Amino acid sequence: MIPFIPADEFAHDFAAGYRLLSVTQRAFDESALAMGVQTALGAKFDSFVKRPVQAMPLALTPDADGRLGFAGTEKLLERLFASPSERFELRANTLATSLVCKGDRVVGVQLRNLVSGEEYRVSSDHVFVAADAYRTPQLMYASGIRPQALGRYVNDHLDARSFVQLDDRFRELARGESEASAGGLDRDAGVTWIPYDRENFPFSVQVMQLDASPIALDEHASPWPGSYVGVVLFGCKELDSRDRIGFSDRETDAYGMPALRIHYQLNDRDHATVHNMMAAHENVRDALGSFVGGGPALLQDGASYHIMGSVRMGETDDGASVCDSFGRVWGVDGLSVGGNGVIPTPTACNPTATTVALAVRAAAHIV
Q1: What is the pLDDT of residue 181?
Q2: Residue 196, phi then psi, degrees to nearest 5
Q3: I want to staple 145 with a disulfide (CB 3.0 to 4.6 A). Which of 140, 225, 324, 340 is the partner?
Q4: Do the domain assignments include residue 184?
Q5: In the Cβ-directed half-sphere of 292, how many Cα atoms lie within 13 Å?
Q6: What's the CA gap between 262 and 12, in Å, rounded?
Q7: What's the CA gap between 111 and 165, in Å, rounded?
Q8: Could you give the number of structural domains in the chain?
Q9: pTM to 2 decimals?
Q10: Per-10-residue mean pLDDT for the chain, 367 residues long?
Q11: DSSP label at residue 245
Q12: What keywords were assigned to this record (predicted)?
């Protein structure tokens, strides 16, 4: 939750985000193996966590043939593409090189066709920048829009992963062979979720069925189908203004934009969180089977691809945020920002639904 957004407003927008993403927790209800993993983890954790172990909410939609696939950008845009009356255009191979300003107002965008090299300008009453947590602040910096908090408070999940081989009590639950059809997900490939609990279990855990071991096995190993699961733990990294994206006024990247450098480090409390995450991995293993490959490992910073905070929202223009709760950039009319970069809080969950909810909130406000 974002403390300065009223809870009822955020709940409304979050529900809209779930609808847009076609979120479900029922996709793998028919998988006995997935249900068995969920039950075993529930027996281990449900007695002391606030929310029970459950199927993870996933953005999944079946196609006409019943094949499951993750909902991506095309799902969000398909209604626009299907309605010629909508004023919508998608321009491929096009780079936004700068925001066009007139005084304290953004009035358009300077674009470059990356195939022909043509540069041109598009005027707009309102510009919404939603690149990613790196390139949204990069475009603002290149445009001379540089609030104090731009690129600061960059945050990522502490990300520790392990691989577990299920013990033989789960064998009878496996189907025996994959039932995935071409281009779809295996109906046995459930994702079990242990939700974050700030007081008792401050991690978000995903346990995913794998179709093969991710590492080399002993030559005598004889795994049964579905016997390997990947265990992902996300933990909260403390916010720090020194964790930041720095931009160069001299060097450029491959697109001619200001080169960036990431400044990021873990403090003592972060290292303590990592230590506790490793113990949590062992608890998950105890409920399911045995580690494959030596146990859990901490991934490199940024490896989750859930980079947040670089254009963070805030309650007031106090120098510690880039925009308000509707994504409007402080002190600049006609400009809003979106994407994972606006999330201002440390989190231990996948950010997509939160980001879409905040985009729904921002878009509705602009309209």
Answers
A1: 45
A2: -60, 140
A3: 140
A4: yes
A5: 22
A6: 35
A7: 51
A8: 1
A9: 0.91
A10: 95 94 90 93 96 94 76 79 77 96 97 97 96 97 97 95 93 68 61 94 92 62 81 95 96 96 96 96 96 91 92 97 98 97 94 95 95
A11: E
A12: FAD, Flavoprotein, Oxidoreductase
Give 134-152 as a 3 state SS string.
CHHHHHHHHCCCCCCCCCE
Cα distance between residue 73 and residue 62, in whole Å: 15
* CA dihedral over 293, 299, 300, 303, signed as positive or negative: positive
Instruction: Return the pLDDT at 62.
Output: 74
- Is residue 343 in a domain? no
Please give the single-letter amino acid code of residue 295: G
Please tell me which residue in 126, 275, 306, 365 is annotated as part of the active site.
306
Find tokens 């939750």 and name the residue: 1
Residue 362, in any domain of the structure: no
Q: List, as one string, the DSSP characters of 171-224.
A: GGGS-SS--PPTTS--TT--EEEE--BTTTB-EEEEEEEESS-SS---TT--PP
Contact 263, 146 (CB under 8 A): no
pLDDT of residue 49: 93
Active site residue 275: no
- 3-state SS, residue 2: coil
The token pair at 283 is: 């608890």
Task: State the maximum Cα–Cα separation within the chain, in Å, rounded to a whole number.
Answer: 71
